[in-house]
Write a structure and sequence with these properties.
There is one protein chain. Helices cover 45% and strands 8% of the residues. By secondary structure, it is of the alpha/beta class. The chain starts with 12 loop residues before the first helix and ends with a helix.
């Protein structure tokens, strides 16, 4: 016995346990489901997200002035009716508007190749702005088609085909709930495939489950019969139960049902009442857990056991209560749409919708499309932006400069130096101080300089005459004696400076005072030079005299 046992096992125990744990975790993994909320701002998306996740609405969501994020996200676990097992994890993505900056983020968070079979799109419309319904639907449905197309890879095309078959199978095998107990597998196990009616699932090639939700439906009939703008935003249309307004709202419902039929979508009217929002949540879970379409069976082979949807939708369609409309996908048809109000042509509206999709944006106003027909049904009562001011074509820069150069060249006072050339001009307004006076005009300064040069010439001639008769001055100096020398030393040179005079003499102008000041400076310098010369020559004369005496 011991010899028959292997010395070592075939695989280490840790690898065996890791494989067992991986298999158990994969079998018990929780699937992930996503709901994508699309719609304009302040349309009630936060209320719908809270209802889907069964969470209370936050105070920030109630504030109308709050700022939306680029992409809202929240999640919650979905449990069965007994609240025992977790069936899936539901994630809700909220896009604040149709701006390209927001919609371009979605392929990064929800790549279609992976998330397409597990994603539900919910387009939100606001009943306080009913004139925007067709525009918003065209915008968002086009975006859904582009998002589901992805990069066009082969793997994604396979996923798109399987998803389309699943939605088509669901529409073809839809049965209206009844009071009598019906086996849950009766509508799936049947081999009879009903053809789709006219105008049904002509678009939505990727088979994306879509729910069109019209929020604030309790404001449809707000107020009495009156004409003019009001809080509900209906503008100049007649409101109230009965009359023209009821016909128009029925026409709006017929248009929405016709468009939803083309995409295999469902239509819901909701308010903030929890019971109405609970119906929408049940139907959203029902679409998220649609079983895949059964594969084709070979002749003689046994049919596989059909899968069961864990969230069965038990609510009947409702097209009469205008605040809680319920139109499930697969129930509606052109015939049922026409019964609501006579005179409505579903085929005409379907062709108009196709014309809008095929036309360019620039040509949308020129042809008779769904947008143009809808404006006739519901006039646009929204706030119009103010008109733009008239276009102002500015002058070319070089032409502007050339024009003003020619104008300035003709002006005589364009050169600021002209103020110095004209001494009679008064001071410019606003200038304070010497710059505002005419004492520094160029002609006066030039005259003062010329007079200074003349004074310097006179000083040179005076020096020459002083040197010639130096002996005579020395003799006069010796005669005066010591007392005279002391007098000359103690007395300062008297020069007619401006500082010593109390003011300009009467009749003299500022120019004359300035000229006398410069002249006195020159005279003082000449006198000081002559005195120094005389003193320097005195001792030399004495030396020469003594020398002569010594020699003699």
């Amino acid at each position: 016995m011991e010899g028959s046992r292997p010395a070592t096992p075939d695989a280490p125990p840790e690898n065996l346990w890791s494989s067992i744990l991986d298999s158990v975790s994969s079998s018990r993994s929780i699937p992930s489901k996503q709901v994508l909320l699309l719609g304009p701002s302040s349309s009630g998306k936060s209320v719908l997200a809270s209802a889907l996740l069964q969470k209370p609405v936050s105070e920030e969501s109630k504030d109308e002035t709050r700022s939306d994020f680029a992409l809202g996200y929240d999640w919650a676990d979905i449990r069965d009716d007994g609240d025992e097992d977790t069936l899936a994890r539901l994630s809700v993505y909220t896009v604040p508007s149709d701006a390209i900056a927001y919609t371009s983020l979605m392929p990064h968070f929800l790549p279609p190749r992976v998330s397409l079979p597990h994603t539900l799109v919910m387009i939100v419309l606001d009943w306080t702005r009913p004139w925007t319904f067709v525009d918003n639907l065209q915008t968002w449905l086009r975006w859904v088609e582009i998002w589901a197309k992805g990069d066009g890879s082969r793997d994604l095309e396979i996923v798109r085909e399987e998803n389309h078959e699943r939605l088509q199978h669901h529409l073809q095998h839809y049965t209206e709930p009844s009071v009598d107990a019906v086996p849950a597998t009766s509508n799936i196990s049947s081999n009879t495939v009903l053809p789709l009616g006219p105008g049904t699932l002509t678009h939505n090639s990727a088979g994306v489950p879509i729910i069109v939700v019209c929020t604030k439906s309790d404001l449809i009939d707000e107020g009495n019969d009156l004409v003019g703008p009001s809080n509900s935003g209906m503008g100049g249309m007649v409101k109230g139960k009965g009359g023209e307004w009821e016909e128009r709202t029925d026409g709006v419902m017929q248009v929405l049902r016709t468009i939803c039929l083309k995409y295999g979508a469902s239509l819901f009217y909701t308010t903030q009442q929890p019971s109405i929002l609970q119906v929408l949540r049940q139907y959203a879970l029902h679409l998220l857990f649609i079983p895949p379409a059964p594969s084709l069976m070979a002749p003689g082979s046994e049919a596989p056991t059909p899968l069961r949807n864990p969230f069965v939708f038990h609510y009947k369609p409702n097209t009469l209560d205008r605040d809680r409309i319920v139109v499930p996908a697969g129930w509606d048809s052109w015939g049922k749409i026409g019964v609501l109000r006579e005179g409505f042509e579903a085929k005409v509206w379907g062709e108009a919708w196709e014309a809008d999709l095929d036309a360019d944006v620039s040509e949308s106003e020129d042809h008779s499309g769904a947008k143009k027909l809808y404006k006739m049904l519901v006039p646009d009562q929204g706030a119009k932006p103010p008109p733009l001011p008239p276009f102002n074509a500015p002058m070319a820069e070089q032409a502007f400069l050339a024009k003003h150069y020619d104008e300035n060249a003709k002006k005589p006072d364009r050169d600021p130096r002209g103020a110095f050339r004209n001494p009679t001009d008064t001071a410019a307004a606003g200038i304070v101080g010497p710059l505002g006076s005419s004492s520094f005009n160029l002609p006066n300064v030039e005259r003062a300089l010329s007079e200074m040069e003349a004074g310097m010439g006179m000083a040179s001639s005076l020096n020459a005459s002083t040197t010639a008769d130096g002996a005579r001055r020395l003799s006069q100096r010796g005669a005066t004696g010591a007392s005279g020398a002391t007098t000359h030393v103690g007395r300062p040179p008297s020069s007619p400076t401006i500082g010593t005079s109390p003011g300009p003499p009467g009749g003299q102008t500022q120019h004359e005072v300035l000229q006398n000041f410069f002249q006195s400076l020159l005279s003082s310098r000449d006198r000081g030079g002559a005195t120094a010369t005389a003193r320097s020559t005195g001792p030399r004369t004495n030396d020469n005299t003594s020398g002569t005496d010594d020699t003699s």
